[in-house]
Amino acid sequence: MGKGERDGSNEYNDYQPGSLNTTDQLIKDLKNIDIVFHIGDLTYSNGYLSQWDQFTSQIEPIASTVPYMVGSGNHERDWPDTGSFYARTDSGGECGVPAETMFYFPAENRAKFWYRADYGMFRFCIADTEHDWREGTEQYQFIERCLASVDRKTQPWLIFMAHRVLGYSTNDWYGQEGTFEEPMGRESLQKLWQKYKVDLAFYGHVHNYERSCPIYESQCVNNDKDHYSGTFKGTIHVVVGGAGSHLSPFSSLVPKWSLVRDYDFGFVKLTASDHSSLLFEYKKSSTGQVYDSFNISRDYRDVLACTHDSCEPTTSAG
């Protein structure tokens, strides 16, 4: 999202033209919001501490009223030879320190920006894509513990979040790369999403909006678009990276799993009205109007039911 100028002066490179609109829409609807998640690329301060002051002032009406939960992105963490997974200079030398210091998040080790957050009927598992997430790593073990330990009877809605797109995106660069994901992104994780029946996975990093069908191993497992009910079949992956920074172009290729794409600024709102009904709304930052929506109706017995690769294999012998 980043930050913007209200006094008519120029933001550096006009890098975050949609930021104020997104902030203002959240403030306008704040009485209907319980918690906010901003998963990476928070301020684009790039090492200038005054930019953090500007950002925290901008979000103060939100963060002083409801929990403002943050994650780590490349513009918070990445710097060569500091332990980040990517040896880039995107953080401007911040190395994650301002983000770790200014915001509270319930991580076991604040230098490792992965954590679990429980709120009402939701379990949120937040990953840190600037540290290794692949199978066998400390973070992979955390992700599985987070997904496995939820009681779906009391917290039926299981949400995975990460900054870089570990799932699916038709961003132009991902299209050129060939697999429509952050390299090595979903190879280790998709079996966990399926096994533990993750309802939704959210990503930033790519500055646009895109929603997939319920998907497993690059194949749609449900052909519906507006309403999903009954047994879980696959996770819906959502790129919602258009909160403010300059927009990212899509690939000219449109796989069958890509249901909705929007080259514009926006944000997502989730509303759980009860233990079996979830409303998803993607809203335009410019107007607050809903551009894309669907709902999920799923009972506890539907969560328990087996689907492809979601239950342990069994063998019977006579």
From TrEMBL:
Keywords: Glycoprotein. Residues 17-209 form the Calcineurin-like phosphoesterase domain. Its cofactor is Zn(2+). It comes from the Eukaryota. Gene3D superfamilies: 3.60.21.10. The keyword Zinc does not apply. InterPro entries: Calcineurin-like_PHP, Metallo-depent_PP-like, MPP_PAP, PAPs_C. Residues 234-293 form the Purple acid phosphatase C-terminal domain. PANTHER family: INACTIVE PURPLE ACID PHOSPHATASE 24-RELATED, PURPLE ACID PHOSPHATASE-RELATED. This is Probable inactive purple acid phosphatase 24. It comes from Camelina sativa.
